[in-house]
Design a protein that fits this description.
The protein is built from six helices and four strands. The chain has 170 residues and is mainly α.
Length: 170
């Protein structure tokens, strides 16, 4: 939105050959400022509602952007040819300390994994695990939280065929 256009001038067309390099970078930087605003508002909403609900947020960008590096712009190169600017993307996880403890998550363990390489494939299994959804398609090896979760408090393991107590007896 125009009120988030802090960096100017801004490229206003998808025809990037009609824009100079700085206006393209400015448009991108403004989009990051707006994303930051949306995430901040989301966190405020979650915090306001945390007395009534268990709250958590996972944000992951769908792709990166090239802003002229190696003569490339935007995204969409085949993965094997795409530069790191298109493949390395942000991911953010937030939850209240009380909820993390209740879910059996070790915050120190999670901090130690900050620089691990992940893929979008992990998102699906991580949300299933965090929400405690019992399904045969859940793969703990793809769940970014599983190695930092104590088995007895794991929402993903309670009341499912993967119940921790049953698994330990087999």
């Amino acid at each position: 939105p125009p009120r988030f256009e802090h960096f100017k001038p801004v490229c206003k067309t998808s025809q990037l050959d009609q824009c100079d390099q700085q206006s393209i970078v400015n448009a991108y930087d403004n989009s990051i400022r707006y994303t930051d605003h949306v995430l901040s508002r989301t966190l405020e909403l979650l915090k306001e509602n945390s007395p009534r609900f268990d709250t958590a947020m996972i944000y992951i960008s769908d792709h990166g952007e090239s802003l002229g590096e190696k003569g490339l712009y935007l995204h969409g190169m085949p993965y094997s040819l795409a530069p790191s600017e298109q493949k390395r993307i942000p991911m953010l996880t937030w939850m209240r300390r009380e909820d993390a403890l209740a879910w059996g998550l070790d915050a120190d363990c999670m901090r130690r994994q900050l620089n691990n390489s992940l893929t979008h494939d992990s998102l699906y299994h991580s949300v299933l695990g965090l929400m405690g959804v019992g399904t045969s398609v859940y793969q703990p090896t793809q769940d970014i939280f599983s190695s930092c979760r104590s088995g007895l408090n794991s929402p993903a393991l309670k009341g499912t065929a993967h119940d921790y107590r049953s698994a330990t007896r087999q």
